[in-house]
């Protein structure tokens, strides 16, 4: 078969994967992120007052989700590798949907802590499982593009989800519930429905996809097999259970990437959990008045440009290769911009600077996730990606709890947001160090780390 025919098969196969699988998995991610951050919309719109929450208590409730997630993160991703994405991701969605539904009837801070913890247990493994699933469908040269399309769901969750949450909150009195309780009810049901659909819709590997031609199946299977040869975990006979965990946990690059990811996710969740509360504070700080929907729309503002930047940044990385500055550059911009937001003299200026921070975080994340699967495969990839995401979940807990505690301690958001900036600058420094280390020590089996240069 000639090069032109191979090229046509490649374009056709990648297009079908992008159309058939990525939007559905992105929709799952959309609902996932909306459910885990719904508490940030509820707190300033009645929940904080009804449950008598301090900033530290709300921060703990926000962050304790990640404790449950962390406990089952790696085992869940190993189970996904064993049982297949279709079954395991569907199971996860139904489980977290049921727990999310229970938030509708929470009565006090202790119940809130318990449900947030159980939500983390139920969701454990979804995000790294989705990353692993998509990585197993496309060769590395297309991975940044596919993960970029998938990651669009995260900023769009706030662009669409914030007004949606505001609309639900405005339905105060529906079923005799307060508005914030109606919101929890409204955002939980889609997870259960999507989980049931996922059981029938998802497919574990290209060879089983009826919507691919025989040539496309063969091309994808052969490309992925050739690419995985020589990676850590490529020998499946030795890459299960303890051997896979050892391969991932003893790889120094996995731990460095985990620290880099920690900095990004600390910034992401500090914004996600406290931006609605900061915007609510504009009313006292600047003497303005906002309705529930006004606050929801303002919360959404930074995330629409972030989605646009994410798309074009990952597209550039796909076309020109992943360079160090694709990850380190946004970390520097985010680290410098987020503390500056506190020194702006108006709501518009504050939101504008926060928008820059959001753009920086979301530009880097899909590019970052193209890295681990370039040197890990099989069960080792499942364990390694889960380990890296565990660091992100530690950051998610820390961002919620520490930001709230420091705000109560200092009386303002200056100190906690300077800490956010410091962690993002740490990510930039580690990315630069990792790239130089990779260059100095040569290629892993003849190739540099994830083509970062």
TrEMBL record:
Q: Which GO terms describe its molecular function?
A: transmembrane transporter activity
Q: Which GO terms describe its cellular component?
A: plasma membrane
Localisation: Cell membrane
Q: Which InterPro entries does the protein's record reference? A: MFS, MFS_dom, MFS_trans_sf
Q: Where are the transmembrane segments?
A: 17-34, 54-76, 88-107, 113-134, 146-169, 181-202, 254-276, 296-313, 325-343, 349-369, 376-401, 413-435
Give the domain of life.
Answer: Bacteria
Major location, coarse class?
membrane
* Stretches of the chain forming a coiled coil according to its record: none
Q: Where is the Major facilitator superfamily (MFS) profile domain?
A: 21-439
CDD domains noted in UniProt? MFS_ExuT_GudP_like
**Topology in membrane:** Multi-pass membrane protein
Alphabetically list the UniProt keywords: Membrane, Transmembrane, Transmembrane helix, Transport
Role: Component of the tartrate utilization system and may allow entry of tartrate and tartrate dehydrogenase.
PANTHER family from the entry? PERMEASE-RELATED, TRANSPORTER, PUTATIVE (AFU_ORTHOLOGUE AFUA_6G08340)-RELATED
> What name does the UniProt record give this protein?
Putative tartrate transporter
- Tell me what organism the protein belongs to: Streptomyces pratensis (strain ATCC 33331 / IAF-45CD)
């Amino acid at each position: 078969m000639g090069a032109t025919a191979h090229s046509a098969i490649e374009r056709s196969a990648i297009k079908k994967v992008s159309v058939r699988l990525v939007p559905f998995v992105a929709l799952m991610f959309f609902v996932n992120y909306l459910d885990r951050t719904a508490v940030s919309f509820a707190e300033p719109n009645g929940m904080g007052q009804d449950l008598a929450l301090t900033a530290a208590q709300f921060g703990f409730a926000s962050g304790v989700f990640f404790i449950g997630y962390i406990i089952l993160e790696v085992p869940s991703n190993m189970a996904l590798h064993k049982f297949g994405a279709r079954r395991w991701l569907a199971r996860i969605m139904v489980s977290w949907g049921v727990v999310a539904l229970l938030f509708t009837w929470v009565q006090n801070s202790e119940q809130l802590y318990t449900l947030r913890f159980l939500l983390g247990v139920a969701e454990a493994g979804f995000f790294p499982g989705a990353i692993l699933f998509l990585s197993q469908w496309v060769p590395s040269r297309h991975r940044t593009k596919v993960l970029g399309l998938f990651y669009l769901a995260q900023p769009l969750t706030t662009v669409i989800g914030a007004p949606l949450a505001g609309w639900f909150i405005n339905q105060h009195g529906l079923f005799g519930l307060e508005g914030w309780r109606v919101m929890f009810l409204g955002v939980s049901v889609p997870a259960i429905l999507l989980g049931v659909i996922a059981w029938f819709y998802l497919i574990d590997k290209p060879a089983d996809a009826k919507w691919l031609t025989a040539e496309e199946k063969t091309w994808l299977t052969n490309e992925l097999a050739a690419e995985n040869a020589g990676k850590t975990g490529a020998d499946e006979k030795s890459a299960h259970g303890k051997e896979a965990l050892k391969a991932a946990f003893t790889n120094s690059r996995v731990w460095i990437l985990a620290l880099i990811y920690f900095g990004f996710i600390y910034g992401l969740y500090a914004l996600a959990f406290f931006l609605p509360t900061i915007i609510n504070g504009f009313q006292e700080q600047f003497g303005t008045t906002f309705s529930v929907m006004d606050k929801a729309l303002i919360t959404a503002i930074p995330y629409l440009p972030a989605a646009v930047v994410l798309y074009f940044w990952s597209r550039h990385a796909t076309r020109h290769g992943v360079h160090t500055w694709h990850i380190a550059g946004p970390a520097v911009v985010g680290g410098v911009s987020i503390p500056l937001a506190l020194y702006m003299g108006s709501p518009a200026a504050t939101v504008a600077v926060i928008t820059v921070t959001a753009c920086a975080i979301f530009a880097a994340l899909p590019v970052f996730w193209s890295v681990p699967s370039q040197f890990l495969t099989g069960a080792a990839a499942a364990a390694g990606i889960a380990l890296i995401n565990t660091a992100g979940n530690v950051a998610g807990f820390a961002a919620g709890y520490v930001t709230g505690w420091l705000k109560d301690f200092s009386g303002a958001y200056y100190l906690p947001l300077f800490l956010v900036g410091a962690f993002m600058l740490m990510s930039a420094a580690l990315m630069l160090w990792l790239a130089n280390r990779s260059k100095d020590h040569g290629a892993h089996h003849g190739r540099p780390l994830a083509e970062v240069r």
